[in-house]
Specification:
alpha/beta; 6-stranded mixed β-sheet; 12 helices; 12 strands
């Protein structure tokens, strides 16, 4: 990617006004190798098993992520995430967010949604939680985390509201990319592990036809299998882990259609034909796997899927 150090150097060598803030998403790999980094504001969104082929244990992975938050001046965490909630005592003097009311009032939940659907900061009401038009409870959690960080950075409620109105969502994360008859098509190529895939599948209208595959990561697949059983009438698998994923689903008693393809091209074109024939509410690329067997990264995979959708629609 583009190194943060280059951004700093380019600004120092130019006559442009210097940026006040640099917003960076840090992976566990980066935190592990730059463990002296001390953010002014540290935000922890969620925690689930990932990158265990490198970090070996969930405990070690957690320790690495925890280091960045401990080094942050302002610490912001998501109380809706079960793993983080269960480690509440590890983060004294931190700000927490929650979209539910499943917490003890003694907990330091600074940003939350009240029973009237209003986003609140401590005892002050800010604005309605439906201000953001993106599907899924995870997006409401992300909204609260962004609001908390913005307030710590000194922005007013009105400034934050204006920023939210201008936000249309990110590419490759439950990104609406087209429609075939009544079936909406989504690109969720960013779902590179089982947990991330589950979040996307519960965010769209069901029943769904799912395209999945790539290189399966270490971690528990049980929740993903149950999610597929609950949300998907069929699944089209491609890539290195397609046989492995197919076996997991068959052993679980999954009764939907399971088809295996060599690549995303073949799986996608089969999906386009199937949605013409059957009453799926959604067709979603939700890989649940990394992309490195066939692509440079998840962005390249997602862009390829968007091209396939656009090309197919153009020729109908």
């Amino acid at each position: 990617g583009y190194p943060a150090s280059e951004i700093i150097l380019n600004n120092y060598s130019s006559s442009n006004s210097k940026p006040e803030w640099l917003i960076v998403e840090l992976s566990s790999y980066q935190i592990e190798s730059a463990n002296n980094i001390k953010p002014k504001i540290g935000v922890w969104t969620t925690f689930s098993p990932d990158h265990l082929e490198r970090h070996k244990t969930i405990s070690n992975y957690f320790k690495i992520k925890k280091l960045m938050i401990e080094n942050s001046f302002f610490k912001i965490l998501n109380y809706d995430d079960n793993f983080l909630k269960n480690n509440y005592s590890n983060f004294p003097q931190s700000s927490w967010i929650s979209t539910t009311h499943n917490y003890d009032n003694k907990k330091n939940i600074e940003f939350y949604v009240n029973k009237d659907g209003l986003i609140c900061e401590s005892s002050s009401q800010m604005f309605k939680s439906n201000i953001i038009n993106l599907p899924g409870s995870h997006n409401l959690q992300n909204l609260l985390l962004a609001i908390a960080a913005s307030r710590k950075a000194g922005l007013s409620s009105n400034q934050i509201r204006e920023g939210i109105f201008g936000f249309k969502g990110l590419p490759h994360r439950i990104e609406f990319v087209g429609k075939i008859s009544q079936t909406k098509i989504y690109n969720d190529s960013k779902a590179t592990n089982f947990d991330s895939s589950c979040v996307g599948l519960y965010s769209i209208k069901l029943p769904a036809l799912v395209i999945a595959g790539g290189i399966a990561k270490s971690g528990c697949s049980k929740k993903w299998v149950e999610t597929i059983k609950e949300t998907a009438s069929g699944i089209l698998l491609f890539g290195e882990s397609s046989l492995e994923l197919s076996l997991l689903l068959k052993e679980s008693g999954y009764e939907g259609r399971i088809s295996i393809f060599k690549n995303l091209n073949d799986a996608s074109y089969e999906g386009f034909e199937l949605v013409k024939e059957f009453q799926f509410s959604s067709l979603i690329l939700s890989p649940a796997c990394s992309s490195f067997d066939q692509y440079e990264n998840f962005e390249e995979r997602g862009n390829h899927f968007k091209f396939l959708v656009k090309d197919w629609l153009k020729n109908q």
